[in-house]
Known about the structure:
CATH architecture: 2-Layer Sandwich
Strand order of the largest sheet: 1-2-3-5-4
CATH superfamily: Histidine kinase-like ATPase, C-terminal domain
Distance between the termini: 28 Å
Number of strands: 5
CATH topology: Heat Shock Protein 90
Oligomer: single chain
Mean pLDDT: 89
Shape: globular
Order of helices and strands: EHHEEHEE
Helix content: 25-40%
Radius of gyration: 14 Å
Amino acid sequence: xxxxxxxxxxxxxxxxxxxxxxxxxxxxxxxxxxxxxxxxxxxxxxxxxxxxxxxxxxxxxxxxxxxxxxxxxxxxxxxxxxxxxxxxxxxxxxxxxxxxxxxxxxxxxxxxxxxxxxxxxxxxxxxxxxx
Length: 131
């Protein structure tokens, strides 16, 4: 039986109408890797980062990247054309917006941003413990 690839990438547009399909794709990829325990956290992180791209980046074109870590765990990233990093803000629990990176912080073992290309960035998330 052929082993599934250890990495997955997808160029896309951060359009909320497409988020359900992206969530299904992430779950299917993780299932194929035997990483089902990361699915809820990974889907939430990807959705929140894509929502940031949709809301705050002029061009919503981006790239999703997933990698199964050899030591166990998952690394995911979303890159876009804005150098502006996401901001972690303290919002009320029931606020309608501004809680995305706080949610990511709550489930990720770590996250960070790095510059890419001419004026872009990549937001990384690492998940080490399956939920």
